Amino acid sequence: MNRQIWPAVFLSIGILLSSAQISAADTGKSMKDSIEPAVKNGGFKMDDFCIWCSSIVKVGDTYNMFASRWPGKYGLAGWTTYSECVRATSKNLLGPYTFQEVVLQKRPGHWDSARVHNVKIVKAGDKFVLYYISTANSTGYAEADAVTGPWTRSDKVAMPFSNPAPLVMPDLSIYCFGRKKNSDGDDIAQAYRAPTYKGPYTILNDGKNLLPGDDELEDPTIWWANNQFNVLVTDIGARATGVSKAGTQYFSKDGLHYQIVSTEPVFTHTITFDDKSSETYRRVERPFVYCDDKGAVIALFLACLPKSGPSYVVALPVDHYVPNNN
Questions:
Q1: Do 93 and 148 contact (CB within 8 A), yes or no?
Q2: 5-321 domain in CATH 2.115.10.20?
Q3: Residue 298 · residue 93 · CB < 8 Å
């Protein structure tokens, strides 16, 4: 990342773009054509467990995947009661990943008493910070000096929304994109910023939907490239692509106003593998993009629910994708 551009970007967060500026943008090429076939024996699976919500941080020569897990016997709905955070590792970014430990479980009597879900790991300076939700309106975090812990949890909710997608700036302040259900029942995009991961977190744009029109979303992942915020989400209402829960990509120059890159889905429920086989899943959600040190996307991870059996994470290589919109 170019550290010099970040102060200017966040100085502009409070500046509203005119409708003329927004409509004149060239949306460029989406990630779709840079995605390569998934690695058949990659990703992360565990017998008898559902795996969901992956995110990855590299430490030394080891990739550490943090993911949500619960017993497969409860089906996909088991996340509501049994979801916990686990860590798995691999020397290869695309896997396969091997289970190492349970990281966090729900805590009776605390803000995270319902579950630990929607986990996202980031590195903020010398700290590892793990964001997660308990209920749909409670995002908090845990911090540690090492990727193996021990973890100290926040003592209260940091942001009252779900699906956190945190982005750490070079000055260690935080921009966090996520989902909130509004009074009309729509799942809208919101964002918070904070001077450090410890907060306080301040909502942006008065909590109004950051996506264009009435687009809805869930499961955002975020990265910085081309001097802009980039998010990949699932199109929960099919309002952007016309395909329910297809992958949809947006960008924003100021962190307040997002524009769609293309109405063509970035991913759908059908995945092609490197052995030339393909599979159409019941659900494909929770995208996570992994970038190299220059900000190019080199891998996409998706949570996939097959027609039979528990869910798992599929890994797809991406050919150094960088958005090219103006």
A1: no
A2: yes
A3: yes
Select from 76, 168, 148 the least CA-distant residue to 117: 76
Give the DSSP letter string of 137-148: T-EEEEEESSTT
Q: Tell me the pLDDT tens digit for each residue of 304-326.
A: 999 999 999 999 999 999 999 87
Q: What is the mean pLDDT of the chain?
A: 92
| Comparison of pLDDT for 18 and 195, the residue scoring more | 195
Q: What pLDDT band is residue 27 in, cutting at 50, 70 and 90?
A: low
Residue 75's region, left for phi above 0, alpha for psi from -120 to 50, else beta, is: left
Are 233 and 248 in contact, with CB atoms under 8 Å apart? Answer: yes
Q: Mind listing the pLDDT tens digit for each residue in 280-306?
A: 999 999 999 999 999 999 999 999 999
Residues 6+ apart with CB under 8 A from 109: none
CA pair distance 217, 181, nearest whole angstrom? 10
Return the structure tokens found at 263: 């109405």
Q: Which two tokens stand for residue 73?
A: 């016997």
User: Around Cβ 204, how many Cβ atoms within 10 Å?
Assistant: 19
| Tokens standing for residue 182 | 């509004």
Terminal CA-CA length for the chain: 18
Burial grade of 60 (CB within 10 A; 0-12, 13-18, 19 or more): exposed
Contact 53, 67 (CB under 8 A): yes
